Amino acid sequence: MKKIAVIGSTGSIGVQTLNVIRRYPDKFKVVSLAAGQNSALFSEQVKEFCPKVATIAREFDGIDDLKKISEIFVGENAFKNAIIDEADLVVISLVGFTGIIAVLSAIEKGKDIALANKESLVVGGDIVMKKAREKGLKILPIDSEHSAIWQALNFDFNAPFKRIILTASGGAFRDKTAEELKKVTAADALKHPNWTMGAKITVDCATLVNKGFEVIEAKWLYNAPFDKIDVIIHRESIIHSLIEYPDGSVIGQMGYPTMELPIQIAIGYPERLSPVTESLNFAKIGTLTFSEPDYKKFPAFREVVTAGKKGGAYPAVANGANDAAVKLFLKDKIGFNDIYGAISGALDAYQGEYNGDFESLKAANDFAARFVKEKFGV
User: Fold this and answer.
1) Most CB atoms within 10 A, among 57, 113, 182, 200?
2) Residue 195 and residue 326: Cα distance in Å, rounded?
3) How confident is the model at residue 319 (pLDDT cuts 50, 70, 90)?
């Protein structure tokens, strides 16, 4: 039985991870949980799974009752206590820069990681992958596109390939004109046509920032030069990404949109478990479409990828600016197109140094967050 720590248990990926674990009580056991501020859901999870350790960011009424079930830790960094020796695998689904801290803590404790935190590789890919290789640890992708690539490579991160082709749905605004994008709201952005995800990543899909992040992730996961990574709009979200091999063969992974499949593949690896969705009905699906992304309408994508190519702390700046801008957008304090302005402005203003360490990345991320707040006067 595989013992699992779920870091970020009350978020979208955490909840779906626990859904997968429920289906296989003979294969998985939750040994620890870490949550943010959703105390009601956290309480339910602790009572159901009875983990050895459970952590949450803040105190709440009723926490004393949970202490009769699990060892409870409280605080902004309490999630570190949930990365316990008993865990065979740590699922990290925290949103934002904090996820890097969780990843580095898990690596330090010698744990394989099922990763759903993009920032860990976008911002700290160099550090994270180096440390993981030194300890002989696995970083298993939960992201649907990277799970598809991993599968298309026959689960071999070192397999040779000619090209990685990342598919993108295009997000909530794929059919909007540039003029219409000036008036869209956060509520509009959260209406993703294909996927059910958290608010932050749903907005990132609408700006295509998420796809830019995935390009950077691909560089680190598969040691891929940027010129071997392409992006294509695939509205139906049936083909989740593809690999072109040196002989010209193209292999992709297909399935109905659900995050529970990549989660199940990551935590169940190397075993493939029973289906989480119905089998594809190709006759019912009908036509699958593909088109080039409109980078003029969604310029943040190229801004993020350019930061990735520059390397150093620039991806941390792009991430920090995007994170701060999305938070403001979700509160209706800035417009949709202001997110791009925040990212490009922060990257232009950044003059810091990168010393190859976590502290440099945090400083860059914090600089970008301050820049955005000052830019918009909040």
Assistant:
1) 113
2) 19
3) very high
Instruction: Provide the pLDDT for residue 137.
Output: 98
Q: CB–CB of 28/2 below 8 Å? A: yes
Beta-carbon count within 10 A of 245 CB? 15
DSSP of 6-51: EETTTSHHHHHHHHHHHH-TTTEEEEEEEESS-HHHHHHHHHHH--
Q: How far from the centroid of its chain's Cα atoms is residue 24's Cα?
A: 24
Please give the single-letter amino acid code of residue 62. G
Residue 25 to residues 2, 21, 30, 102, 123, Cα–Cα distance (Å): 10, 7, 10, 26, 35
d(CA 100, CA 110): 15
Bridge partners, 168 (sequence order): 233
Give the confidence band of 277 by pLDDT, cuts at 50, 70, 90: confident
Strand 112-115 to strand 163-168: parallel, antiparallel, or no bridges (unpaired)?
unpaired
270: preceding bond cis by omega (within 30 degrees): yes
Report residue 44 as tokens.
């339910």
pTM: 0.95
Structure tokens at 292: 């080039």
Query: CB-hemisphere CA count at 13 Å for 83?
Result: 24
CA distance 163 to 166: 10
Query: What phi and psi values does residue 76 have, to the nearest 5 degrees?
Result: -60, -35
Q: In what order do the strands lie in the sheet with 163-168?
A: 229-233, 163-168, 239-244, 250-254
Dist CA 353 CA 338 (whole Å): 26
* Structure-token pair, residue 231: 């992006």
Mark 160-170 as b/e (b = at least 16 C-beta within 10 Å).
ebebbbbbbbb
